[in-house]
Specification:
Chain B: Keywords: Hydrolase, Metalloprotease, Protease, Signal. Chain B: Its cofactor is Zn(2+). Chain B: GO terms for molecular function: metal ion binding; metalloendopeptidase activity. The complex is a heterodimer of chains A (about 450) and B (about 450). Helices cover about 45% and strands about 20% of the residues of chain A. Chain A contains 16 helices and 13 strands. Chain A has a 6-stranded mixed beta sheet with strand order 1-2-8-3-7-6, with helices on both faces. In chain A, strands 9-13-10-12-11 form a 5-stranded mixed beta sheet, sandwiched between helices. A two-stranded antiparallel ribbon of chain A has the order 4-5. In chain A, helix 10 packs across helix 16. Chain B folds into 2 domains: about 210 residues, Cytochrome Bc1 Complex, Chain A, domain 1 (2-Layer Sandwich); about 200 residues, Metalloenzyme, LuxS/M16 peptidase-like (Cytochrome Bc1 Complex, Chain A, domain 1). Chain B is about 40% helix and about 20% strand. Chain B contains 16 helices and 11 strands. Chain B has a 6-stranded mixed beta sheet with strand order 1-2-6-3-5-4, with helices on both faces. A 5-stranded mixed beta sheet of chain B has the order 7-11-8-10-9, with helices on both faces.
């Protein structure tokens, strides 16, 4: 094994040139009826992944109807057209297709996967699902029971407790300040008309983004889009304005009897369209971006054994941007973890980063980028995300250049401006020793 | 259907052994001179490779009193070797734009990297190095023990469902190591030391106990050449022990447990039965059990879901689970999450009555056809995720199966008849071999 390190260094040096990017050839397709989609054609496997996303999400809930959109999305697979829930499910199984639904604070998504051999039938069923969901009262009551069961579980889950407490503090009365699933009270009070209203609020052409990947050509996709989406109404509920973010520095302890405290921490973040976003992205990779080599992982886990995992992440949502992180640590140790994290925040703000840290982060981020494009479904989802962020269709080819363009000075200047160690707020759920809620 | 909690995870801790297997033409395999098996799954759509090494050693192979040592050692393999500093392997993977990690189960421990395809050689160089060359310090031993205890806190002690599952497994397995948690019992984890870790390492980490699984944009001949160069030169361990494990005695009495915890918001009942696993050359019974689980609890149209959620409306969730990929006897299990106002007693009775009615009604031929159709389609969808196919080979080959068994499985599933399903149900799901658990709120403790 002599000379292993030298050989490896040589090997590493000669391959440090950027790995070949996955060649993702995106075409923009506009249907005869005027609906635009991004398409990656790949005829090697006889199926297509189709991603539909509607901007707005659970933030479109009408006043007093919190949870209506989340419940509505859960009801989409409970029957459509002439088919009640069980017959609908049998029809879907008989096509071996899958349709799944998701809602977030900013969007509602439909992810579909269907075989080429029965594409027409699958699309007809999905069309009914979007245009003619039944929302039968019996299904509404059954799924409401599932949502309420989930809400009762969330109320005793330390991660959910922390998330709700932090959001309430940060966003107040804005929709971001409460859970899109609603509350026991609000969900219990929802009726069938509320669900119909939620459906009308969400699904509209002026907020639609489409990505398709797989065994389909532009003409076929264009026809599919008009069949599936051509009859959607032009507009839906108004999207709320930006949230006012209030995060005072300090600590909030939420008492919960469990052996390990869960902490969520955060401060004001940076918008996705801010010119310094890539600088922040690189900075976060170094501070707490999820690799074993990040400063937070190194200091809190590797050196001190205080946690299994500690992470920081930028959360640039449509209506507010925050910079968040999380850690879980035994009640007797969490105070030290909080202290170390705050000091790492301070060290980054004060001393900045090293050239090696910058280079390592850039090689990692640029090299890891192609690993995301690992299947038809993931690529369709990425393309829809790009459209929602207003990115150009050739973005994939230029994205790594943007990462590489970030300089040491950029990061250090941004770290000094953005990172606010004393403004960082920790919401700690558990029975932490040596931590108390700060007084305001 | 709302996925508030992933209920399936309440009962199945290991990954679900789905039935989606890819066309055989994507897969090639060979064995190195020292006995190390190699499997290659090709997909040339993107210039990416996944490189994995699987060891036929998991928590069920641990010595008594050292529960958790397999997983502890997995963490310690990221420390120094003769030629790499602590953390340098992961840092090198990251500096090459890759991601790496590892996982431990009852029957295996596996390490992997996903990276640009032209970095495969570097991955092999580092992974083969840590197969035999780790160098641990006492500080690694102490700090990493704290990390695994925090991992136990996070995964188990902070989660009443996980604590309940741990207790249920202990009741299910009286004499087999599947009754001991993979992460370990806390009191034993606290005593794990250098000697325990190195002893497990020296016994099981050797090429003749390992499987290399490479998937993605690679040429099998090139993989073979590199594997010979890096793994082929490591001597086999001539003292590798057979995986002889204690077996469960016949169960002659139904077992019950109740677990109460103030953090439980949603009580539920689960029922499990010791069940045969997939065996090399003998997978018919396992295939029938898998289809039985799909018929009973595999989704919206399944028998239990239809009866308990749609007709009787006594449950918010129902499921049936069978994980056949296992070296030794596995379990078949039910989960019923009662609707508001329904007691666990009522939920359990509804489960019993519904299962009895299923046996009386027999298999719905149309439902069985739909399930088989979906299994055939899943072979098409699986080709979109060759890393998933690679994982299945890794799990199978560490669970006593062969490549031929993996490739035969889709056809065996298609050939199962309704009569075989009812027969296996009657043979395996008998009351006297059941374990029934209630997860309950501890109301007094939350005053």
């Amino acid at each position: 094994m002599m000379g292993f390190k030298q050989v490896m260094a040589a090997l590493t040096a000669c391959v440090l040139a950027l790995p070949a990017l996955a060649e993702v050839k995106i075409k923009e397709v506009t249907s005869p009826g005027g609906i635009t989609a991004w398409l990656v054609e790949d005829h090697s496997i006889p199926f297509t992944a189709l991603e539909l996303r509607f901007r707005g999400g659970t933030s479109l809930d009408a006043p007093g109807k919190r949870g209506a959109i989340y419940l509505m999305a859960g009801l989409l697979e409970e029957g459509a057209g002439d088919l009640m829930a069980q017959d609908y499910a049998k029809a879907l199984e008989g096509l071996a297709a899958s349709f799944s639904y998701d809602t977030s604070k900013d969007s509602a998504s439909i992810s579909a996967r269907f075989l080429s051999e029965n594409r027409g039938e699958a699309i007809a069923l999905l069309r009914d699902t979007i245009h003619a969901p039944r929302f039968d009262q019996i299904a509404l009551d059954r799924v409401r029971g599932q949502v309420l069961s989930g809400l009762r579980s969330d109320a005793k889950d330390p991660n959910d407790i922390a998330g709700r407490a932090f959001a309430a503090m940060a966003y107040g009365d804005h929709p971001y300040g409460t859970d899109g699933k609603g509350t026991i009270e609000s969900v219990t009070a929802l009726n069938r008309q509320d669900i119909i209203d939620a459906h009308q609020a969400v699904f509209a052409r002026d907020r639609l983004y489409v990505g398709a990947v797989g065994d389909i050509d532009p003409k076929q996709l264009g026809e599919l889009l008009d069949t599936l989406l051509g009859d959607l109404p032009e507009t839906g509920a108004a999207i709320p304005g930006p949230a006012k973010v209030t995060i005072p520095g300090g600590v909030t302890v939420v008492d919960f009897d469990t052996p390990q405290s869960v902490a969520l921490f955060g401060q004001i973040g940076i918008d996705r369209d801010d010119p310094r976003f890539f600088t922040a992205y690189v900075m976060n990779q170094i501070l707490g971006g999820g690799s074993f080599a990040s400063r937070l992982m190194s200091e809190v886990r590797e050196k001190r054994g205080l946690t299994y995992g500690v992470y920081s992440y930028l959360v640039p949502r449509d209506l507010a941007a925050v910079y968040m992180g999380s850690v879980a640590s035994a009640n007797g140790k969490v105070a030290e973890a909080v202290h170390v994290i705050r000091e790492e925040w301070r060290r980054m703000a004060t001393d900045g980063i090293t050239p090696k840290e910058l280079q390592d982060a850039q090689t990692y981020l640029t090299g890891a980028y192609p690993l995301r494009f690992d299947g038809n479904g993931p690529i369709a989802s990425i393309m829809v995300g790009m459209q929602m962020q207003g990115l150009p269709i050739d973005y994939i080819a230029t994205r790594n250049d943007k990462v590489n363009a970030v300089t040491l000075e950029d990061v250090n200047q941004l770290a000094a401006e953005l990172l606010d160690p004393d403004g960082l707020h920790f919401t700690v759920v558990g029975r932490p020793e040596g931590l108390e809620s700060s007084s305001e | 259907m709302i996925k508030g909690i992933t209920w399936a995870s309440a009962i199945v801790s290991a990954s679900w052994a789905g039935a989606a297997f890819a066309s055989e033409e994507l897969v090639s395999n060979f064995t190195l001179g020292n006995g190390m098996q190699v499997v290659v799954v090709e997909d040339h759509r993107a210039p990416v490779v996944q490189h994995m090494v699987w060891y036929r050693a998991g928590s069920a192979d641990e010595p008594k009193g050292q529960s958790g040592v397999a997983h502890y050692l997995e963490h310690l393999l990221f420390k120094a070797t003769e030629t790499l500093e602590s953390g340098e392997l992961s840092a090198t993977v990251a500096a090459n734009g890759g991601k790496d990690n590892a996982f431990t189960s009852y029957d295996y421990t596996a390490y992997y990297q996903r990276v640009a395809a032209d970095r495969l050689e570097l991955m092999m160089r580092m992974e083969s190095d840590r197969m035999v060359n780790i160098r641990l310090t006492e500080r690694d031993i102490e700090t990493e023990r704290e990390v695994i205890l925090e991992e136990r806190n996070q995964r188990t002690d902070n989660n009443p469902r996980a604590l309940f599952r741990e207790q249920s497994n202990a009741v299910q397995y009286h004499n087999h190591r599947y009754g001991v948690p993979i992460i370990g019992w806390r009191h034993e984890m606290e005593t794990l030391d250098m000697e325990d870790a190195l002893s497990f390492y020296g016994t099981y980490y050797a090429p003749n106990n390992a499987i290399l699984v490479v998937s993605g944009d690679v040429d099998p001949d090139e993989v073979n050449r590199l594997a010979e160069q890096y793994y082929g030169v490591i001597p086999a361990n001539p003292d590798l022990p057979d995986r002889l494990r204690t077996e469960e005695p016949p169960q002659t009495a139904a077992r019950r447990l109740t677990f109460k915890d103030a953090r439980v918001a949603q009580p539920y009942v689960q029922r499990s039965y010791l069940a045969p696993e997939r065996d090399a050359g003998d997978q018919q019974q396992a295939a029938a059990l898998f289809l039985l689980s799909e018929l009973l609890g595999g989704g919206t149209t399944s028998y239990l879901t239809n009866a308990l959620q749609f007709e009787q409306q006594v449950a918010v969730y129902t499921g049936a689970f069978y994980s056949g990929m296992s070296l030794d006897d596995t379990t078949f299990s039910f989960l019923v999450v009662p609707a508001e106002g329904i007691s666990l007693q009522q939920a359990e009775e509804a489960l019993d009555q519904t299962y009895a009615a299923f046996l009386e009604d027999g298999v719905d031929a149309e439902q069985l056809d739909r399930i088989k159709l979906q299994l055939r389609a899943s072979e098409i969808y699986a080709r979109d995720n060759v890393d998933g196919i690679a994982n299945r080979y890794g799990r199978a080959l560490t669970s006593g199966l062969t490549i031929e068994d993996v490739q035969a499985w889709p056809d065996i599933l298609q050939a199962v008849t309704a009569d075989e399903i009812i027969a296996v149900a009657k043979q395996v799901l008998r009351p006297e071999v059941s374990v029934t658990g209630w997860l309950m709120r501890d109301e007094e403790a939350i005053q």
